[in-house]
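ok trying this again, last paste got cut off
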Amino acid sequence: MCDTTSDTADDGEDGCYIDYRDFHEKMNNNPVRKFDSGATRDTSEGKLDFEGFLSPLVLHRYFEYMHQHRNLPNGDKRDSDNWQLLFGDKHLDVCIKSLLRHVFDLWLHHRKYSEKTTETLEDSICAIIFNANAYLFKLLLDKKNEIN
């Protein structure tokens, strides 16, 4: 059943009505932060909290890991965004295989078998982050390409 109260309007498609009262109330009563200086800002409600979601300590350690792994065996240094060129037609396979190797090292560290690992605990975690990022990057690129 359609809402036909006086503060509604026909949406023009199916003969039903849209109730605009809530919309106008939200627009006219939108909370605004007011500072002692006189400056005003809208609230952070509904906005992504990058500062809260991330830790600069963790990111710094990850960036150190990434910088360390820019050095190639022949002495060259790859660009920091080189990984965004993808790892060929089997990019996702390359990522998942590497990710699982590093997860296995993390698991060994966790179970106190560090002598059986091929890398430090922190490097295992950074490598997991890297491979998960590279995997997600490809998924998002594919999704974007499907839309375009």
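PB: full thing came through this time. The first helix runs from residue 21 to 28.
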